[in-house]
Design brief:
Layout (H helix, E strand, L loop, with lengths): L1 H18 L5 H21 L3 H17 L11 H6 L1 H14 L5 E4 L2 E4 H9 L6 H26 L6
Antiparallel strand pairs: 1-2
InterPro entries: ABC2_TM
Keywords: Membrane, Transmembrane, Transmembrane helix, Transport
Pfam families: ABC2_membrane
Length: 159
């Protein structure tokens, strides 16, 4: 588990440097950590590669669907709060644009960027402290579950 942290930190730094310098490294690192740890957890819970591939694809699709970008927060509120990608998206957008008072024209109305983020996505700049803490909880929980299940508790790889 600890070996993955340094590797994914370097991967997050390189990814963010290439794609978009304003994305916070912390959010991107947490995002890569829980995707990696979820894959490791699913592999430890399944008896074969085929079942793990199907479950991993299903879980990753659900994480991307309920992150708050495709389906906004009011529609599936429980799935939104349980989805780690929604917290990372909230952190990235709130930290970068949550305090911006520049006006934009959206849906035929003139709004500030911060009010648009709050009205449309539900991303409130005042909750940035909570949004900074929650994304680190998901990788810790997933890594702990992986460590627990890869042990002798549930191990399909034993001969």
């Amino acid at each position: 588990v600890l070996v993955e942290v340094s590797y994914l930190f370097i991967q997050a730094v390189i990814y963010v440097i290439i794609t978009y310098p304003m994305i916070s490294y912390y959010c991107m690192l947490c995002n890569l950590l829980y995707f990696n740890y979820m894959g490791m957890l699913i592999v430890s819970l399944t008896p074969g590669v085929q079942v793990a591939s199907i479950l991993t694809f299903s879980f990753y699709s659900m994480l991307n669907l309920f992150c708050g970008f495709t389906i906004t927060k009011p529609w599936w509120i429980r799935a939104y709060y349980l989805c780690p990608t929604s917290w990372v998206l909230n952190g990235i957008l709130s930290s970068q644009y949550g305090d911006t008072d520049k006006e934009i024209s959206i849906f035929g109305k003139t709004k500030t960027i911060s009010s648009f983020l709050d009205d449309y996505f539900g991303f409130n700049y005042d909750l940035l402290g909570v949004v900074g803490i929650v994304p680190i909880i998901f990788p810790i929980v997933l890594a702990s579950l992986f460590a627990h299940f890869i042990g002798n508790k549930l191990n399909f790889q034993r001969s």
